Amino acid sequence: METSVKVFTQISEFFDYLGADQAASITEVLAPATLDSDPKFPFICSRHYADLIKKSAEPEALMREVLPLMAEREKVPGFVDDPVGDLPAGKSDCVIQKYDKRALVVSTATCGMRCRFCFRKNYPFQNIPDIAGHVGNWLDTHTDIWEVILSGGDPLTLGPGEFRDLVETIAVHGSVTTLRIHTRLPVIRPDIAMQHFELLRELPARFECVLVSHVDHPDELDEESQMVFGHLRFSGWTLLNQSVLLKGVNDNAATLEKLSHKLFTQGVLPYYLHQLDHANGVAHFEVDDDRARELIAEIRTRLPGYLVPKLVREIAGEKSKTPI
Ligand code: SF4
Fold first, then answer.
1. According to the model, what pLDDT value does residue 5 have?
2. Residue 44: which of 61, 67, 17 has the closest Cα?
3. Ligand 1 in contact with 115 (CB < 6 A)?
4. Cα separation of 192 and 239, whole Å?
5. Sign of the dihedral through C-alpha 284, 290, 294, 297
6. Is pLDDT above 90 for 23?
7. Which helix (H) or strand (E) segment is 171 a member of?
8. Which atom of ligand 1 is nearest to the CA of 114?
């Protein structure tokens, strides 16, 4: 099916685009009765990601990342709205500080798609009309901050003007020497990531620049992500990746091994493999710690050390990620 739509917000449209064969093969794995057509955390999927699903050798794995299931409605003990303690670490409407001398900006509520396992799926996002001014005011009184992390939502979904204002405001604060961007756009909306390219290319002259992508499965990487990463690397960015260990998506050694290899061919080093954050509505993605350790032990025998991500969990209130 041809379409000019860039983002699907209706599951029916998304299935139409995938085509009857693809939708049928996937629904064999994910029974239609388990789909939630009216999820609290809305369905959003980019056409680019739908194209990745079409091309994937494991379409059901990618599909699990994006399709809302009734399982998300289950209340599971230990799963909460704020699993990583964002709210108690909030310093203003959009700044979170958990770690000494580093601050995270919740830049926007918008993402290129809604990942079903998102740790912020219940986060009370606010629209901050003048985010640059807001962050600038906060940094004016926090002159010990040396690293600012732009997170969200996805910071690269900000419009070009808003994004430029934000990074230029940060750049006038002399204590901030490192800018880190957490983004999933290179694999969800590479077209939007590239619209910031002129600015991204300038930034390494002003900061140490680190881009942490979020890629969970090797089939999320293609020639378009390669182009985004290639441009950034050429401009002097350090490129790292974090993944979440997800049942039915990447919880086997062959997939994790392939992911590390493929990231490396695109110039990105695997950094963290996160154990699932226990947000309400994500329990069906859980892989237990023993299995997670087995997987890391197995890929350690197959890969050089620099391609083995650190297996970690974020525990609310802790001063660093916790190795598992
Ligand atoms: S892109 Fe990141 S913040 Fe947005 S839904 Fe996915 S995991 Fe959550």
1. 80
2. 67
3. yes
4. 18
5. positive
6. no
7. helix 160-171
8. 5
- How far away, in angstroms, is 113 Cα from ligand 1 center? 7
Task: Please check the confidence at residue 8 and state whether its pLDDT lies above 80.
Answer: yes
The topology under which CATH files domain 95-323 is: TIM Barrel (3.20.20)
pLDDT at 32 over 70: no
Phi, psi of 311 (to 5 degrees): -85, 120
Q: Is the pLDDT of residue 300 over 90?
A: yes
- The model's pLDDT over 86-118, given as tens digits with 9 standing for 90+, comes to 888 888 889 999 999 999 999 999 999 999 999
The residues facing 313 across adjacent strands are: 322
- Which residue ranges does the chain devote to CATH 3.20.20.70? 95-323
More confident residue, 3 or 300: 300
Q: Provide the pLDDT for residue 138.
A: 96
What are phi and psi for residue 180, nearest 5 degrees? -120, 135
Measure the CA–CA gap between 59 and 257, rounded to whole angstroms: 18
CB 121 within 8 A of CB 165: no
What own/partner pairs with CB < 8 Å and gap ≥ 24 does 87-91 have? 87/124, 88/316, 88/317, 91/138
| Confidence at residue 21, expressed as pLDDT on a 0 to 100 scale | 76
Answer yes or no: is the C-beta of 109 below 6 A from any ligand 1 atom. no
- Residue recorded with tokens 């906060």: 138
Question: Which secondary structure element, helix H or strand E, spans residue 11, and what is its range?
Answer: helix 11-18
Tokens describing residue 115: 């990942």
- Mean pLDDT, the chain, rounded, equals 93
8 A C-beta contact, residue 46 and residue 112: yes
151 CA closest ligand 1 atom index: 3
d(CA 46, CA 5): 9
